[in-house]
């Protein structure tokens, strides 16, 4: 790669993005009453001077207010893994809200038991409770873990992702000890008071931290996903489960992103045995929904504790959690959209995407790598692929990343804006994947010219 060409190429693509998107640029300039000019500040995490504004979306396509259509491999950073507005979810939401009436009445619906049973079939956990986000599911799983173990600390992996959970915003510092993740906003206390940290794929480091005897639970993704895909090495997850049992800590699998591994996430695909499992985003087909599951043994232990107010003070995901609309959307998504068959097709497409990216990398002999987790694929600017979150963070190259994202977007392709990740949905086609392969190859050719 000719690195000296990159600044000029990035400037060219930035100028092209501004030329192509005058309505988005104008809308962003007018957004004086929004904090950061966007409805949620993550929407500023995009290549270029402003985000594209949404006009509509259906299946694997997004249209912006300037009339451009995109092949969408971002899919709402996993929230739309079922595709945009899938027909079964649209029908279920309309039936619940417009025909039956009522989104939230603080009353259960029969759909909830169906969803709980289906989540048990997929993931193996026996008892389920609902939230609106995976962040909330993680918060309540953590509280239950502390309650049942009597221990104060939560252990996470360096550069993990569990939403905005305070306990998770810790990384491994240069000296190997835990320190606050850079950029954290308004931490309520020193994160080392609430948390311990170990590198992913480091069993010795995990045991060293668990040996203190104060860890209530290990909260982890079975594969890191939000710092680039970091896959577990052979024997690592088995070792995590053995160590947590040996040291009396619970194991919480956060499958919010790793749900891409299959209909039961990594937990089913790799025969894992967590004590709790959290999930959100994709299960509602785009409607806000999250859930946490507990093993039968853990649920019985908690329900047997007469000193815990599990009705009013514990396990509560918020007033709107488990509302009829979210639960109806979740049932439709799991029953009709993100089915076992759909996951098989999505994984095959992700394999095709991976092969196309790998061919481009190899054609130019770039020291890059590509990793896949079921329906999700990502390429990194380092080889071999990182084995820890800290290694993956060190491989970041914002200038190169921005160029590739803008180059693709200017030619009708969206990747996840946080990194170079592509996710397949049931409506993604082989032609969509091949279009990315062609445009990606063209971008690399320009870098190599």
Automatic annotation (TrEMBL):
Domain of life: Bacteria
Molecular function via GO: transaminase activity
Keyword Membrane attached: no
Cofactor(s) named in the record: pyridoxal 5'-phosphate
Keyword field contains Ribonucleoprotein: no
Keyword terms: Aminotransferase, Pyridoxal phosphate, Transferase
Pfam families: Aminotran_3 (PF00202)
Protein family (similarity comment): Belongs to the class-III pyridoxal-phosphate-dependent aminotransferase family.
Name of this chain's protein: Aspartate aminotransferase family protein
Annotated source species: Streptomyces canarius
Taxonomic lineage: Bacteria, Bacillati, Actinomycetota, Actinomycetes, Kitasatosporales
């Amino acid at each position: 790669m000719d690195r000296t060409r990159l600044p000029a190429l990035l400037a060219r693509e930035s100028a092209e993005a501004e030329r192509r998107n005058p309505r988005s640029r104008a809308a962003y300039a007018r957004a004086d009453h929004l904090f950061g000019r966007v409805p949620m500040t993550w929407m500023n995490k995009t290549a270029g001077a402003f985000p594209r504004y949404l006009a509509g979306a259906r299946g694997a396509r997004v249209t912006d207010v300037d009339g451009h259509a995109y092949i969408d491999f971002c899919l709402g950073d996993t929230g739309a893994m079922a595709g945009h507005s899938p027909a079964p979810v649209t029908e279920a939401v309309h039936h619940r809200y417009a025909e039956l009436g009522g989104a939230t009445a603080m009353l259960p619906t029969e759909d909830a038991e169906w969803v709980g049973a289906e989540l048990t079939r997929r993931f193996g956990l026996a008892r389920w409770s609902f939230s609106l986000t995976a962040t909330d599911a993680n918060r309540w799983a953590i509280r239950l873990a502390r309650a049942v173990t009597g221990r104060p600390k939560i252990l996470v992996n360096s550069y993990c992702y569990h939403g905005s959970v305070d306990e998770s915003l810790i990384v491994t510092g240069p000296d190997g000890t835990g320190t606050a993740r850079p950029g954290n906003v308004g931490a309520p206390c020193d994160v080392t008071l609430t948390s311990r940290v170990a590198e992913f794929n480091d069993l010795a480091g995990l045991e060293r931290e668990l040996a203190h005897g104060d860890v209530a639970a290990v909260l982890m993704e079975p594969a890191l996903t939000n710092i680039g895909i970091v896959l577990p090495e052979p024997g690592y997850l088995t070792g995590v489960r053995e160590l947590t049992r040996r040291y009396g800590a619970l194991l919480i699998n956060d499958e919010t992103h790793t749900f891409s591994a299959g209909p039961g996430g990594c937990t089913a695909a790799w025969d894992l045995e967590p004590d709790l499992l959290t999930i959100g985003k994709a299960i509602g087909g785009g409607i806000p929904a999250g859930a946490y599951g507990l093993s039968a043994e853990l649920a019985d232990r908690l329900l047997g504790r007469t000193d815990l107010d599990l009705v009013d003070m514990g396990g509560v995901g918020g007033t709107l959690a488990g509302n009829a609309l979210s639960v109806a959307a979740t049932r439709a998504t799991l029953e009709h959209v993100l089915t076992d068959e759909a996951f098989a097709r999505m994984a095959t497409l992700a394999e095709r995407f991976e092969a196309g990216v790998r061919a481009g990398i190899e054609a130019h002999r770039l020291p890059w790598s590509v990793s896949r987790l079921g329906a999700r694929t990502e390429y990194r600017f380092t080889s071999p692929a990182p084995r820890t979150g800290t290694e993956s963070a060190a491989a970041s190259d914002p200038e190169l990343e921005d160029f590739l994202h803008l180059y693709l977007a200017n030619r009708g392709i969206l990747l996840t804006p946080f990194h170079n990740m592509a996710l397949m949905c049931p409506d993604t086609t082989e032609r969509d994947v091949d279009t990315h392969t062609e445009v990606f190859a063209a971008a690399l050719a320009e870098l190599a010219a």
